[in-house]
Amino acid sequence: MSPLPPQVLSPLDGRYRAAVTELGEYLSEAGLNRARVQVEVEWLITLTDRSLFGSAPLTAEQKSALRALVTGFGQAEIDELAVLEATTRHDVKAVEYLVRRRLTALGLDHISELTHFAATSEDINNLSYALTVSEAVRKVWLPKFRATIDALRLRALEYRADAMLARTHGQPATPTTVGKELAVFVYRLERLERQISASEYLGKFSGATGTFAAHVAADPALDWPTVSREFVEGLGLTWNPLTTQIESHDWQAELYSRVSHANRVLHNLATDVWTYISLGYFRQIPQAGATGSSTMPHKINPIRFENAEANLELSSAILDSLSATLVTSRLQRDLTDSTTQRNIGVGFGHSLLALDNIVRGLGEIDIDRTLLASDLDSNWEILGEAIQTVIRAEVSAGRSTIADPYALLKELTRGKRINQADLVAFVAGLEIGEDARARLLALTPAAYVGLADSLVDFLP
């Protein structure tokens, strides 16, 4: 990667560079050009391995020297390509000229005319993007995504039995446990992780309009689709046999939509954790030397989750735009995808930054069990659901003749604050069986969590 310029436009290349720099190995201009060199080199090796057009298979040493152009790709090549492109005004042509120069330096001038043979620039580009995106997702984004899920899973297991007042519509509701609520997010994210991990990365190599026309003109007898398929699959990609000049980008739309979906689930997590912090259910652990406010010394702001929210929104905005626009190309080719795809790294960068903040944020919070217990003990009216349900069961079993149990509890509890004594007196006077009465008299808000604890065991 090139050195950081003195003035950067994107915060991903400035303030947040340390958190996203790994993506630059793949989704930067330099990463794309390295992949272009890789595709050009592997195409040369494919053609010579088949002894096409008077060529002969290269020796192991020659192949190794060619592949070293990829592994050794660095600042010298970046600078040289910049000079070449200033003349060619075409990025892929500059890569072709760079490869030809290296062939000369390696004494392989005799195969130089096979460089970029029968290929359109999009043959090189679509494979290069597939390679760089797959590497970025598999080696950088997915590991951080899995680390986020793992950090959340640890919290879900740790807090699985800690009862918490639920708040449906923001109002006190049937209690749950902190761990079960976090486990819901783990389950959602695990499902998305499996889908993203199973993503296909498609590639084409079939010429200017996807017809192999130039290939057939050069050698009508050769089975060019088989050559193309073996070449694309040899790069670790899935071959797309039916395209225009461009690979149709459907795999990109699918991938970016899934990552955007994951972003939105994470956004839901961030807003929920923020709210739990606001309610006091989660307390933030002070970090040495950190300042929450420039004027209010007491503050510890939930900045990790706020930062994550904003970056998840930016990421999804970019990835959604990519998903929507990349699937359309006028007739056999237009260049709208060329500039659009240069923002893939920006979309993933904001998501990666958000993941980093969520992992760090989860490590800087703990639950306040005293406040959780106090909040539950202040809301005995939530047991109205349990009481009316038990009465209905008793009526159905013939042990009660109470009419409309729901209305009875609604009259007692709706919009009112009642305490334990109120409920004990109410239950004591109910026409229900003694077993049912005993169960209700033993019930407390903290104990009214159903199977919340054991539901955590359903995590994959």
Automatic annotation (TrEMBL):
Residues 14-308 form the Fumarate lyase N-terminal domain. The keyword Iron-sulfur does not apply. Residues 329-449 form the Adenylosuccinate lyase PurB C-terminal domain. SUPFAM superfamilies: L-aspartase-like (SSF48557). Pathway: Purine metabolism; IMP biosynthesis via de novo pathway; 5-amino-1-(5-phospho-D-ribosyl)imidazole-4-carboxamide from 5-amino-1-(5-phospho-D-ribosyl)imidazole-4-carboxylate: step 2/2; Purine metabolism; AMP biosynthesis via de novo pathway; AMP from IMP: step 2/2. Its EC number is 4.3.2.2. It holds the Pfam family ASL_C. One of its GO terms (molecular function) is N6-(1,2-dicarboxyethyl)AMP AMP-lyase (fumarate-forming) activity. Keywords: Lyase, Purine biosynthesis. PROSITE patterns: FUMARATE_LYASES. GO terms for biological process: IMP biosynthetic process. InterPro entries: Fumarase/histidase_N, Fumarate_lyase_CS, Fumarate_lyase_fam, Fumarate_lyase_N, L-Aspartase-like, PurB_bact, PurB_C. Catalyzes two reactions in de novo purine nucleotide biosynthesis. Catalyzes the breakdown of 5-aminoimidazole- (N-succinylocarboxamide) ribotide (SAICAR or 2-[5-amino-1-(5-phospho-beta-D-ribosyl)imidazole-4-carboxamido]succinate) to 5-aminoimidazole-4-carboxamide ribotide (AICAR or 5-amino-1-(5-phospho-beta-D-ribosyl)imidazole-4-carboxamide) and fumarate, and of adenylosuccinate (ADS or N(6)-(1,2-dicarboxyethyl)-AMP) to adenosine monophosphate (AMP) and fumarate. This is Adenylosuccinate lyase. It comes from Cryobacterium fucosi. The lineage of its organism: Bacteria, Bacillati, Actinomycetota, Actinomycetes, Micrococcales.
